[in-house]
Amino acid sequence: VDRTDGVSAGVKISPPIVEFFDADAQIIHQMNISVQNLSKNSKHIRFLPPSTEHFRLQCKEVEKTIAPGLEVSALVEYYNEKDEDCKDRIIFMIDEDFVEVPVLAYAPKSTLTISGPVNFGTIVADGKVLTREIAILNHGSKEGQFTIVPNEDCVFQVMPTEGLIRPGYSQPVRFEFISKQVGVVNQTIPA
Question: What ranges make up the beta strands (E) of the chain?
């Protein structure tokens, strides 16, 4: 199947990839999938269900001939006892052609990003404390933990160095630097 428009073997499969995002454990997740005949001739379509126990395909008929312009639909279900990512596939037999549609489930997780590098720019070596902040953002659906580990020769004071960030929230992190000597400072701090 063409991943962008789902057109293959004279039919359009929508969606071309079945994806369940933030699929919580012990909940049945469902999504419709349809096959539309784009050709000028009738198409014989057969649904071959996923092979793993986590995905099921529900349809009135597993095999059907559809006229030009018409479509047939099915329901894809995902269920898992554990929070884990799963993958499988549905195979459509369209006349003599086989079309594979990936079926994916993604467990809820945190997705932490950093708003950018800390850049103090050009500064005067006058012993003043300079402060910059960045934000650690959680774009995911689960609480995320971060840890910043400055090494022993780090010239920056970092606050806080660890924490938990709820989904959809951010945590400001402050970097302090005392400019005592002339020179270039370029450090990477593992996070």
Answer: 7-8, 11-14, 18-20, 29-37, 43-48, 55-58, 63-66, 71-78, 86-94, 97-105, 112-114, 129-138, 144-147, 156-159, 162-165, 170-178
pTM of the model as a whole: 0.74
In angstroms, the CA 94 to CA 110 distance is: 40
Cα separation, 33 vs 18, in Å, equals 8
**68 near 41, Cβ under 8 Å?**
yes
Tell me whether residue 18 is exposed, middle or buried, using C-beta atoms within 10 angstroms of its C-beta: 0 to 12, 13 to 18, 19 or more: buried
The pLDDT value recorded for residue 2 is 47
Please state, in angstroms and as integers, the Cα–Cα distance from residue 97 to each residue in 7, 92, 145, following that order: 13, 8, 48
64-97 confidence digits (pLDDT tens)? 999 999 999 999 999 999 999 999 999 999 999 9
What the block records as the tokens of 71 is 């479509």
Q: Is pLDDT of 183 > 90?
A: no
Closest CA to 80 of 137, 37, 29: 29
